[in-house]
Input
Amino acid sequence: MSTTQSDRQVPATLRDVARVARVHLSTVSRAMNVETRSLVNADTLARVLQAVDELDYRPNQTARALRMKRSLSVGVIVPDLLNPMIVQMIGGIEGRLGEAGYLVLLGNSNHSDERAKLFLETMSAHQVEGIISTAATEDDDALRDIARFGRPLVLANRSMTSGSFSSVVPDDQQCSELAIEHLVALGHQRIGHIAGPPTVSNGLLRRRGYEVALARRGMPVRSERVQAAVRYTVEEGERACEKLFARCNDLTAIYAGNDLLAIGCLDALARRGLHCPEDISIVGCNDMPFSGRFDPPLTTIHVPLAELGEIAADLLLELIVDHRREPRHVIVDPYLVVRGSTAPALR
Amino acid sequence: MSTTQSDRQVPATLRDVARVARVHLSTVSRAMNVETRSLVNADTLARVLQAVDELDYRPNQTARALRMKRSLSVGVIVPDLLNPMIVQMIGGIEGRLGEAGYLVLLGNSNHSDERAKLFLETMSAHQVEGIISTAATEDDDALRDIARFGRPLVLANRSMTSGSFSSVVPDDQQCSELAIEHLVALGHQRIGHIAGPPTVSNGLLRRRGYEVALARRGMPVRSERVQAAVRYTVEEGERACEKLFARCNDLTAIYAGNDLLAIGCLDALARRGLHCPEDISIVGCNDMPFSGRFDPPLTTIHVPLAELGEIAADLLLELIVDHRREPRHVIVDPYLVVRGSTAPALR
DNA sequence: CTGTTAGCGCATTCAT
DNA sequence: ATGAATGCGCTAACAG
Output
């Protein structure tokens, strides 16, 4: 507090510092950057640093970004902020990216490809160095647009069959295999499936995994036992489950494409006066936070979502370092978590 | 796709467009901006627009930001991304800010003032037009630093007693009043309190509210019946609750400073072989997502967190429009949600 | 080691 | 209605 100034200061620039330190502006620039700092004389450095301190100088990152073409920011697009699973991933992403000095621009598409596209463009305009999308849908050419600009892009949680982008996803078919294996071991023979939207990879893949798992065991694969939800929400899960019940009244178990859908199933059961797991067993997928504390505690397939986010960040960082790097596809292993929503089949 | 080019294009600039449209760069600039578009002739505008389309030109927001001193971005600092309540607020914030054309830079301080300060500085360097912090602690002079630069700042969920920043918080004392009122109505006389950290406003205020509510009813206020958790997490809630039990074994109810702490209390009860609500009633606070689905369903004080986020965004937007605006303090009303974790006192 | 110069991509005065 | 010129704050050659 060398000078008594008004409350609001106009930020100091390199010029200001240079003037006070009686050196050229470029010398200050060198002094500020760790890589070039060694180029500047010890006592001029001291003078500069003192001026910096005195003026409370902070480099303007926008100007740096413009000049260096490095914004030190990346965009992260999510389909739904109220989905605890997504948030887990954001945590992993943000943590890793933060360590690397990047700031995260967050965009919540709210399940809308339209909005996702808007974010893609806005973030692109903001010169993000890369983008992680956890909201990829199959027919999402907005993502391709981004790639055309050479902006690194990685898909997390959901992928695209084309495989042209780096991605990290759980082994979705294996998720289903684990769920069916568990249910069959409990004696269940008529197992329904509430699938995720067919437009997103894990909706499709988990459904396929369900069918494969049944077929492999010589069990009938009936399409009327599958009902896809239009979105990964509790409400849509409930709705889908009711449709399923309207068609099939002999099911003893349901495998839901994710935990939110599973909770929706629980609601649908309750509406019909049915009990879980006594009347019907339910297996979720993803193991969202607190899923073990529900009533009943949810048997589900654990997916390491935070780790998945970290890997997505790593993949993006790789790509940022070398844009021409070949896309990599990481698949992480899920595992079964048995809790209270499954029980031996009685019928 | 007029020309067959390589996959990766270098983004077009105003100059490129100007060259193709055979006009001066500044004309293109005018044409791109809605406010100045009327200044340009209809058919030159058409030429420009065609060139823009042809080259797939997108304005570089970094350059704009540098020139206009408007980054169209704001920073949001949160203490914990794994806290579902916080996420609710982010949703509200991001939604409102997105509508206004702003992008959100997200920073997760992970309960560390150190990291929060780092984010504040990094975001500031990125020229955010304002900052919303949901991680304010009482002794947080980093926040004051930001304000010195004249960067608009609003505090959400947590406030600072100084009151020099705009803020939006729940009526924390009222939260406690509602909780105590409910418990007393159920016949509880010996009510413990797991408080949030005393360094954050709602930790302190809710504790005070608890004391005031007891005193108002002529009930004894005993400090040994209060245990503060060092953080708002399930684990710290459990730990604090165990400390409390070690001191007091005659409590019939506990009011927890938030739902996470309440869940921790549930864990502590379970450890001791006690049941909720039969042995001890528990009231949480905030009404986090899914709290009604826990076992037992949590009786809690509902706080409209998403709305709180929206208000925070509005306050910030106001401040961005006029930096010298007086700080405003919005207080939102909580209400009681009775579920299954509370029952009449038996002792 | 330090100063000079030249932009990064854009908006905005000022001329014309 | 458009062109010319200037500079936002910074880094990166290039000289000296």
User: Anything to note?
Assistant: The CA atoms of residues 46 and 135 of chain B lie 50 Å apart.
